[in-house]
Design a protein that fits this description.
Layout: E1 2-9, E2 18-23, E3 28-35, E4 46-49, E5 52-55, E6 66-69, E7 76-80, E8 100-104, E9 111-112
Parallel strand pairs: 1-3
Antiparallel strand pairs: 2-3, 4-5, 6-7, 7-8, 8-9
């Protein structure tokens, strides 16, 4: 038997605690642990324009990325996150340290954009 613990960033969880997910056919126990310890430090997340301040923090996602498309260039899609790095996904090879990634024709021909 073996145990796998997947850590998930959740700034609001504090220390959090492990949650049982499943036991696999290969006798592996799978847990998920949502904890602030798995997060990068929070950054100020906002912009100012013409004397008005706008809080962008509600746009930050901890468990997925935003997906954007360009109707004039349908071969391109973009995974983005706001005020934090991309959430890693196994389908595409985008850098987990970038904030945006271009996906070409739905394939893993990704270009990290920053």
């Amino acid at each position: 038997r073996s145990t796998s613990i997947r850590f998930k960033c959740d700034h609001a969880a504090g220390t959090g605690r492990p949650r049982f997910i499943a036991e696999t056919a290969a006798c592996q126990y799978v847990f998920e642990w949502a904890t602030a310890a798995a997060c990068l430090p929070l950054v100020q997340c906002g912009v100012s324009s013409n004397g008005h301040a706008y809080d962008l923090s509600p746009l930050m996602l901890a468990d997925r990325n935003w997906l954007a498309s360009d109707p004039t260039r349908p071969e391109f899609a973009y995974e983005i996150n706001v005020c934090r790095p991309l959430v890693p996904r196994h389908l595409f090879d985008c850098s987990p340290f970038g904030a945006a990634c271009q996906i070409i024709n739905g394939t893993a021909n990704d270009r990290t954009m920053g």
